[in-house]
Write a structure and sequence with these properties.
Layout lengths: L1 H9 L2 H5 L6 E3 L2 E4 L11 E4 L4 E4 L4 E3 L1 H9 L3 H11 L4 H6 L3 H24 L2 H10 L4 H6 L3 E3 L5 H8 L4 H6 L14 E7 L5 E8 L10 E3 L12 E2 L1 H11 L2 E4 L2 H9 L5 E4 L6 H7 L5 E5 L4 H15 L4 E4 L8 H7 L1 H9 L2 E2 H12 L5 H16 L4 H15 L3 H8 L23 H19 L18 H12 L5 H6 L10 H14 L5 H32 L5 H22 L1
Parallel strand pairs: 11-12, 11-13, 13-14
Antiparallel strand pairs: 1-2, 2-3, 3-4, 4-5, 6-7, 7-8, 8-9, 10-12, 14-15
Helix pairs in contact: 3-4, 15-16, 17-18, 18-19, 19-20, 21-22, 21-24, 21-25, 25-26
């Protein structure tokens, strides 16, 4: 299981599937033609946020593992090995370290207790309190929500605290809390917990309280651990998720304290990379939630280079990049201290990143001179050449031609002289999956997923479950969910996801995500009255299809002389009862 989670952390489902299906972004999801059926209108959807796929034409769906199993005809173990190699992992190493999952839980426990230790320290240290409340102007609610703490100046207070609670020294060190000399890693610093998407603490950013301290960096982060990978961690994501979905865009700032200040000021869809440059992994994680990212980096050389890098990376995954200009102050935190409303207005007054870069370089170079034209074009053209959209690229070629007063042909020629990485374009799999499901089973799969997606999403329609039997449902996941919905009248999507570690629920989590995606795509905008009619219609068709399927099996067995008279009578009585039930619902 630990290998599965590690693969999920390293590979994005849309990247894996795009090796078989040509995908195009559609809002927060990706669409493509079904690899299981011949079709002209895309009905195949991939949800990066939920990490699942669903094929509306066949009713199939699952995670990246089930997709590869379908396409390659592999067992789960074979698929695991294939994707592990793709992710740069050694499956044998995980098999020989089967205790690693338990170790991760132990590290989570150590970091959770350490966070409470730092929080208590903050309450008891006047200097740290003054820094948080007076200098940073955070309020008590913000400090509590972001779980800010303080590491005292002692070399071993945290270590001794954890040892007294019977934690192993090796585990304490593995959590990133100790130096190579087995002393406390963080001393006399404001502690800012780093959390994963579910809100679990995986490490810390530690801010020096005394800026005059010599030979000490202002910020230090937890080193690389099995929980924390700075190239993949997006700071503030667990707090920002709901706001990202609501606002449809992400604000990315440079500092973790900028994130917290912005959150307090009311701009909650704000995130940052914790002490590292922006990577494609960061952007792919963000793209699960939004397709619009707004950068607020320093306007110095490093900030401009970071913006250019973001444009190149974002172009490959169809993210729109915009830039936020600050009217005052050097960073969001400083502007918010002047006037929080100015920050809110700046976020909304964004500029498309390439247009921002063009304005930036026009202020540096005189485009009326030959050397100015040369330097200006040398900075802008590599960015434009690397754009994924040909129409957008052509737009900027025309714009630069007018701006520099040179021919478009010369702009184009210079552009293609750059040795740039080409964007990978997924090629559709030429060998379509040819397996044809039994038409009754195929129909049953579509009917049950549509029906269950509605009754899961709308609690007021749970009465429609009456009269149905577990045997009408095709697979174990649908059977399990059907029984759970009957057993728990208030059961909803969030409850199941939150109980994903419980043995009763964990096997249906991916199936429930598929149903949620199906409902969002097909039924969310439909009125409750129309949904009731649709769900009841699906219910009747589900029973009708089951009856027909049983009749087909009966015919086949009779023709093959596989039934004696007693068994035949039993089956005929069963089919008769089903017909009566079906007629009752049709009335």
């Amino acid at each position: 299981m630990d290998l599965v989670e590690e693969i999920k952390n390293r590979l994005n489902i849309e990247d894996v599937i795009s090796e078989y299906v040509q995908l195009k972004r559609s809002g927060s999801n990706w669409r493509g033609l079904s690899p299981f059926n011949n079709e002209k209108t895309p009905s195949f959807i991939v949800s990066p946020e939920k990490q699942i796929w669903h094929d509306f034409s066949s009713g199939r769906g699952g995670n990246m593992f089930s997709f590869v199993m379908e396409m390659e005809g592999l067992s789960f173990k074979e698929t695991l090995n294939l994707l592990a190699r793709k992710a740069g992992l050694d499956p044998d190493q995980f098999r020989t370290q089967n205790h690693r999952g338990q170790n991760k839980e132990k590290l989570f426990e150590i970091l959770e207790i350490s966070t409470k230790f730092f929080q208590l320290n903050l309450k008891n240290n006047q200097i740290a309190l003054e820094y948080v409340f007076l200098k940073r102007k955070f309020d008590k609610k913000t400090v509590a929500e972001w779980r800010l703490g303080y590491a005292d100046s002692s070399r071993d207070s945290l270590k001794n605290f954890l040892l007294k609670r019977k934690f192993d020294l090796k585990d304490i060190k593995s959590s990133g809390l100790l130096s190579r000399y087995d002393e406390d890693m963080f001393r006399d610093r404001l502690m800012i917990p780093l959390q994963d998407e579910m809100g679990k603490v995986i490490g810390y950013t530690a801010r020096l309280l005394n800026d005059n301290t010599k030979n000490s960096p202002k910020y230090i982060n937890t080193p690389q651990t099995i929980l924390y990978d700075k190239s993949r961690h997006v700071f503030g994501l667990s707090q920002a998720k709901n706001s990202l979905r609501k606002n449809k865009f992400a604000v990315m700032v440079e500092g973790n304290l900028d994130v917290i200040a912005s959150y307090q000021a009311g701009v909650e869809n704000v995130i940052a990379t914790a002490g590292t440059a922006l990577t494609s992994y960061h952007l792919k994680i963000i793209s699960r939630f939004v397709s619009d990212i707004r950068l607020c980096f320093d306007s110095d050389r490093a900030g401009v280079d970071a913006t250019k890098r973001a444009i190149n990376l974002a172009s490959k995954i169809n993210l729109d990049v915009n830039v936020i200009n600050l009217p005052q102050g050097k960073d969001p935190d400083e502007l918010i201290k002047i006037d929080p409303n100015m920050w809110v207005n700046a976020v909304n007054d964004k500029i498309y990143a390439i247009d921002w870069l063009i304005d930036y370089y026009r202020k540096i170079y005189d485009v009326n001179t030959s050397i100015g034209k040369k330097n200006f074009s040398s900075n802008i053209l590599p960015i434009i050449q690397n754009l994924n959209d040909e129409i957008e690229k052509d737009h900027y070629f025309n714009l630069l031609s007018d701006l520099l007063q040179v021919s478009k042909d010369s702009i184009t020629k210079k552009s293609y002289n750059y040795n740039l990485d080409k964007v990978f374009l997924a090629k559709p799999n030429l060998q379509k999956h040819q397996e044809k499901l039994n038409p009754f089973l195929d129909e049953a799969n579509r009917l049950q997923t549509n029906f269950l997606s509605i009754v899961l999403a709308r609690l007021s329609l749970r009465d429609l479950l009456k009269g149905l039997n577990e045997e009408y449902f095709l697979n174990q996941e649908s059977k399990t969910l059907f029984e759970l919905l009957k057993k728990h009248s208030d059961l909803d999507y969030e409850t199941i996801i939150n109980k994903s570690n419980d043995s009763e629920w964990k096997n249906i989590v991916d199936y429930v995500k598929i149903l949620s995606l199906l409902y969002d795509e097909k039924y969310r905008s439909i009125s409750l009255e129309d949904l009731h009619y649709e769900a009841n219609f699906l219910k009747i068709r589900l029973i009708d299809n089951y009856v027909k399927y049983q009749k087909e099996i009966f015919k086949k067995d009779v023709l093959n002389n596989q039934l004696n008279e007693e068994d035949s009578i039993k089956i005929l009585k069963k089919i008769d009862k089903l017909n009566q039930l079906l007629n009752k619902f049709k009335e």
